[in-house]
Amino acid sequence: MSPAASAVSPTVCVMDAAGTLGATLVRSLLLRGYTVHAAVQTHDEMQVLNGVVSCDTEKKKLKIFHSDPFDYQSIMEALKGCSGLFYSFQPPRDQPLSDGHVISMKLSLIEELFEQELMADVEVRAAHNVIEACAQTETIEKAVFTSSVTAVIWRDDRKSVPSDLDERHWTDINFSRKFKLWHAMSKTLSEKSAWALAMDRGVNMVSVNAGLLMSSDLTITNPYLKGAAEMYEDGVFVTVDLDFLVDAHICVFEDVSSYGRYLCFNHIINHNEDALNLAKKLAPSAPPPPQSRDQDMRVIQQRISNKKLNKLMVNFDRGPQHHCGLVGETNGNGSVHVTKNISL
After folding, report:
1. Which of 10, 13, 33, 53 could be a cystine partner for 82, CB 3.0 to 4.6 Å?
2. Would you call 183 helix, strand, or coil by DSSP?
3. What DSSP state is assigned to residue 287?
4. Residue from 155, 157, 147 nearest 260 by CA
C-alpha cells in the first residue's frame, strides 16, 4: 500500500540514488508520500541531489546520505529507520565528478575491470554488504534488488529450452566466462549471492531483472549489449522504459504478495525495423547496413516471458505524476543533475 493510501509515511532507502534509475525512483517515491533516504557515493552527488526538489514538503522528506557499498557502517547509517530498500549497483565512484578528465580515466578503468572479470567480485561484495546490512536493520521489511535479464538468458541450452525463458532460469556462469559476457556474469553472481544471503538471514527480498534500460544516456558501450546479435536471433532482446522500470520497483515493494524474481521489460526487439532504430540511436552517424527483403519482413519469435510481473501490475496505481519542484535526470556519466521546473 502506498503512503497516499494510508495515514503513515514510510521511510525507504534508495541506493545508489545518483544513477539513472535511482534518481528517478527518489523522485517518484517522494511524489507518493514516502520519506526517502537517498544514498550516494560522493559528496558532489550529495550536493547535486539536494537540488532535485524545491518544495518544502518534499525537502523535509528527502535525506541524503554518503554511503559507500564497501563501507558497511555507512550502509547501516543510510538504512536506519527504513522499512524498505531499493538497491541498484553502480561501480564505485571515488573521484570528483566535476573533473571531466578524472571521469574519463575512471570509465576506462571500469571497462578494464569488466574485461578482467574483477567487476564481478566487486559487485558480489557490494551485494553481500547491502543484504547483510538489511539483516541487521530491524525495521527493514522488504529489499528490492535490481538485477538484469542478462542473469537469465545466457546458457548452452537456451535454444532448446521447451518453454519461454522466465524467472525460473539462470545464466550459466561458465558459459558467460567462456564468451566473455562479463555483465551477465556479474549480474548473475551478485544476484545469486544476494539471494543466498537473504534466505540464510531471513531478509524478505524480491529482485527486478530489467531489460536494456532505454535511458537518454544509453550508448553503444553499455555492457548489456555484449551479445546483442545473439539475443536478437534468440528472441530475448528486450528493453524497458525508465518510467515502467520505476513503476515495477514500487509495485513489487508495495504489493505484499510479491515474491522471488520478476523479469521487467515492455518491448522486445524482434523485427528488423526495431533493430535498425536501436542501432541508429546507439550510433547515429553510422551508415545503415544493407538489408534484403527477407530480412525486412522477418519477425523473430519471442522466447522470453514477463507474465509474472504483468499479472502483479494489473491493478497498480501509478499515483501522482506531477508536482511542484525540480526534476532530476542523469547525465552521461550516470550522475543526477537538475533539469527543469515542473508545475501542477
Report:
1. 13
2. helix
3. P
4. 147
Give all strands (DSSP E) within the chain, no chain letters.
Answer: 11-15, 35-40, 62-66, 84-87, 142-148, 205-210, 212-213, 238-240, 260-264, 267-268, 325-330, 336-342
Cis-peptide, bond into residue 157, ω within 30° of zero? no
* 96 band by pLDDT with thresholds 50, 70 and 90: very low
Structure confidence at residue 168 (pLDDT): 95
Q: What is the pLDDT of residues 296-325, one digit of tens each?
A: 678 999 999 999 999 999 999 887 654 443
Residues in the chain: 344
Place of cell 533493430: 275
Instruction: Please say whether the beta carbons of 74 and 48 come within 8 A.
Output: no
User: Which residue matches cell numbers 529450452?
Assistant: 161
Q: For the residues of 60-92, what is the DSSP string, one character each?
A: HHEEEEE--TT-HHHHHHHHTT-SEEEE-----
- 89 touches 193 (CB < 8 A): no
pLDDT at 316: 93
Neighbours of 301 (CB within 10 A): 8
Q: What is the pTM of this model?
A: 0.85
Query: What is the DSSP code (8-state) at residue 304?
Result: B
Buried b (16+ CB within 10 A) or exposed e, 273-290: ebbbebeeeeeeeeeeee
